[in-house]
Each structure stands twice: as C-alpha cells, then as structure tokens.
C-alpha cells in the first residue's frame, strides 16, 4: 500500500465509510487477534482486544492523524489490558 492509497483510505475512514472500515478490519483482524492471544494468553481476551481496537478506531477516527497504524492501537490496548489485570491481582 502506498502513501496515496493510505491518504485516500484515511480520508474515507474519517468520512465514516463503512466499506473502507470493513477492508481495514479484514486486513488487520488476524494479526491483532494473534497479538492479543500472544500477549494476554487466552481466546476471550484476544477477542475482546480485537473488538475494542476496532471500536476505538472507529469512534476516534477523526482524531487519527495517520502517523501510526491500527495495529499500534491494538498494541496499546493489550498493554492497557495487561496493566489492568496486574493492578487487580
């Protein structure tokens, strides 16, 4: 994917284009799920991270500047989840 494609994609996402958002989900879901599973150790938490990542991305897309990828948001979500679990222990 080149920079022009990413710019178009970001603009479409910021206009709440659900078809483009579905493409982004399709392109990133497996990788984000595997990250969640590896970092959190169970299927339910990995599924939660996957869902939370895309909900946060969709709800906050107008604030997104395009300097990072959706995968980075997933990484942050995993880190937050691990911190929350550790704090409760």
Automatic annotation (TrEMBL):
<dbReference type="InterPro" id="IPR013325">
    <property type="entry name" value="RNA_pol_sigma_r2"/>
</dbReference>
<dbReference type="GO" id="GO:0016987">
    <property type="term" value="F:sigma factor activity"/>
</dbReference>
<dbReference type="InterPro" id="IPR039425">
    <property type="entry name" value="RNA_pol_sigma-70-like"/>
</dbReference>
<protein>
    <submittedName>
        <fullName>RNA polymerase sigma factor</fullName>
    </submittedName>
</protein>
<feature type="domain" description="RNA polymerase sigma-70 region 2">
    <location>
        <begin position="26"/>
        <end position="68"/>
    </location>
</feature>
<dbReference type="Pfam" id="PF04542">
    <property type="entry name" value="Sigma70_r2"/>
</dbReference>
<dbReference type="GO" id="GO:0006352">
    <property type="term" value="P:DNA-templated transcription initiation"/>
</dbReference>
<keyword id="KW-0804">Transcription</keyword>
<dbReference type="InterPro" id="IPR007627">
    <property type="entry name" value="RNA_pol_sigma70_r2"/>
</dbReference>
<keyword id="KW-0805">Transcription regulation</keyword>
<keyword id="KW-0731">Sigma factor</keyword>
């Amino acid at each position: 994917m080149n920079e022009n494609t990413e710019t178009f994609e970001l603009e479409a996402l910021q206009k709440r284009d659900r078809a483009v958002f579905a493409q982004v989900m399709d392109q990133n879901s497996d990788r984000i799920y595997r990250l969640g599973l590896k970092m959190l150790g169970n299927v339910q938490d990995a599924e939660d991270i996957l869902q939370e990542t895309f909900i946060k991305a969709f709800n906050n897309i107008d604030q997104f500047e395009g300097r990072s990828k959706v995968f980075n948001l997933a990484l942050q979500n995993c880190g937050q989840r691990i911190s929350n679990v550790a704090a409760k222990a």
